[in-house]
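Onboarding guide, step 5: your first structure request.
Type a short instruction followed by the sequence, for example:

Predict the 3D structure of this protein.
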Amino acid sequence: MSAPEPPGFPDAPDRVVAVTDQARLTVLELRAEESDAEALALWLEVNGSSGGEYTYDLYFEAAGDARPGDVVADYDGLELVVPAASVDALRGAILDVRDGGMVLVNPNRPRTGPSVMHEADLSSEVAQAVIRVLDEQVNPSIAAHGGMAQLVAVEEGVAYLRLGGGCVGCGLATVTLSQGIEVAIRDAVPAITSVVDVTDHASGTNPYYEPSKK
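The system replies with structure tokens like these:
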């Protein structure tokens, strides 16, 4: 006999991700420790890839901060927000608790286009606009911490970046990318809908990426 589907999936089309009861209760317990807990939603987004799989960021933020295109769904008192740029990559995934830890079972895998694996043509107008943002806004800022960001490729609205210097292996690299670099690029270059970090952070002095961490 096959295992029952987690509640609300796939029967609820507004839900990109399924959340098991155990995961929902665990998240609600964690949220209860936050200030103004009732106003917070769980945000789940793709923040990069490694080893042929997506890597993720899970955090609490107000549901009211969702932008048009983001998917917001209620799971019996827990709101989950999936940013628009992560919807396709997370569709059909299941958030669960296994062996005492939160896991995301995702049937999707990142595409590894040839322009990401090899040197890409960065002569397009969009690519050059992204490079200007990096040169004029981003790199002068993170250079103070010994870091730098380089554009690797632009494909279908996605800017692929490689972080270097002090950013490699830095535990704050995810925050730097999502809250600083991505915001700057998307604000200045509307054609870019998502920014993906292709850095091998596991090669840094203090690697923060763990393959088993979802």
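Each response can be followed by summary notes, for example: The longest strand covers residues 40-50.
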